[in-house]
Design a protein that fits this description.
alpha+beta; 2 helices; two-stranded antiparallel sheet; Aminopeptidase; six-stranded mixed beta sheet
Length: about 140
């Protein structure tokens, strides 16, 4: 049972996400020694690059530059390849965030092209798009 309650608004029902709803896979990154969630990551079909699955991740600032994100994303990519048969993976990062690109490179993705991303406030930012075609893990 989920801890999230069902919430009604005038136009919506907000309910916990179920496995039937999920088109993607998401995980919490839990630091074993502290049993503390330090980030999240996932993989799911990419709407902009047909046939590719996109990876994404977030990590609490206090845990940056320690290799946790790379470790987690390598495991997620391996899971996707071995268990789901996914061979085409992509991701992107804002130009102002080159460290995120380093995570992608350490996971085997290579720069492919420049793109644009629309932020929640409607403004545009330029991104670098990376991809990998998995032959073996």
């Amino acid at each position: 049972m989920s801890k999230e309650p069902i919430i009604d608004t005038d136009r919506l029902i907000l309910r916990p996400i179920t496995l039937v709803d999920e088109k993607e896979w998401n995980w919490a990154f839990v630091l074993k020694e502290e049993n503390k969630v330090i980030g999240t990551g996932g993989i799911g079909p990419n709407a902009q690059m047909k046939g590719y699955w996109g990876i994404g991740y977030n990590l609490h600032y206090d845990y940056w530059h320690k290799g946790y994100c790379t470790e987690a994303m390598k495991a997620i990519i391996e899971f996707a390849y071995r268990k789901l048969g996914i061979k085409k993976i992509c991701s992107d990062h804002a130009i102002d965030n080159p460290r995120s690109g380093k995570v992608m490179e350490k996971c085997g993705l290579k720069f492919d092209h420049y793109g644009e991303y629309t932020k929640l406030d409607g403004s545009q930012t330029q991104v670098l798009v990376f991809q990998i075609y998995m032959r073996k893990c």
